[in-house]
Amino acid sequence: MRKDVWQYVQANPMLRAFLREQPRWYRLLARRPHELSAFQLAALRHYELTIPDKVEKIAQSLQMASLMWQMFKAMRD
After folding, report:
1. Alpha carbons 14 and 43: distance in angstroms, whole number
2. pLDDT in tens, 22-43
3. ∠ at Cα 48 (44, 49), nearest 5°?
4. What is the pTM of this model?
5. Which InterPro entries would you find in this protein's record (predicted)?
């Protein structure tokens, strides 16, 4: 693997952990270092850190809060 790619991966703990979990990316980056952006995107998808994932988590939290509020109101009445 190219030195600059390796240093970039080592500087980011999330990418380093993902590389340990998915060793096929090590081989892929060694052969095609220009695939670094695809590697980052795959790591974000794996750890569910993309914007759609975050929006979904917020929506689920709001839905849970709404359910709790409705239960609270039902118990109060």
Report:
1. 8
2. 999 999 999 999 999 999 999 9
3. 60
4. 0.76
5. YlbE
